[in-house]
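Colleagues,

For the teaching module next term, I've prepared a clean inverse folding example: a structure given as tokens, and then the sequence designed for it. I'd like students to try predicting residues themselves before seeing the answer, so please don't circulate the second half yet.
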């Protein structure tokens, strides 16, 4: 389905969902986690024909995500400086796993971070000042990543 037609269908489903919130249910089956996140108020995930979980998107992310995604824009063009940043991240976050390294952008999966948000951001601010990186972003795992975590545990 082309993007414009998909958007029109999404808008119709959202309108029906929002206008008939208490009196009806809409059941959608999809492999697109983006679609589920955009349209659904509750999501059930099945793996190999077995029902694994049910709940709002945020509940599933809180319960089944394993860590955070850290994206760093180093601003460095030389590999040595980027390598130093990588080492510093692994030093500060022992469960950090480099997922992508493209130009001056590094993406890490911070697995099972057991620190408070304030502590994570404090460490990131220290790294930014010490290493001279341009910017960083810390995000929750996507619903797609949550689904993959659930399906890999099966």
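(Answer key — instructors only)
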């Amino acid at each position: 389905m082309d993007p414009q037609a998909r958007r029109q269908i999404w808008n119709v489903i959202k309108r029906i969902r929002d206008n008939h919130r208490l009196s009806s249910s809409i059941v959608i089956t999809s492999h697109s986690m983006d679609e589920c996140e955009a349209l659904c108020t509750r999501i059930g995930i099945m793996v190999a024909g077995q029902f694994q979980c049910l709940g709002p998107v945020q509940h599933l992310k809180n319960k089944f995500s394993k860590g955070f995604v850290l994206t760093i824009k180093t601003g460095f063009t030389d590999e040595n400086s980027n390598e130093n940043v990588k080492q510093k991240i692994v030093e500060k976050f022992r469960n950090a796993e480099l997922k992508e390294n493209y130009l001056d952008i590094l993406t890490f999966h911070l697995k099972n971070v057991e620190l408070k948000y304030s502590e994570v951001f404090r460490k990131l601010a220290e790294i930014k000042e010490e290493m001279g990186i341009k910017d960083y972003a810390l995000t929750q795992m996507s619903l797609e990543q949550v689904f993959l975590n659930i399906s890999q545990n099966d």
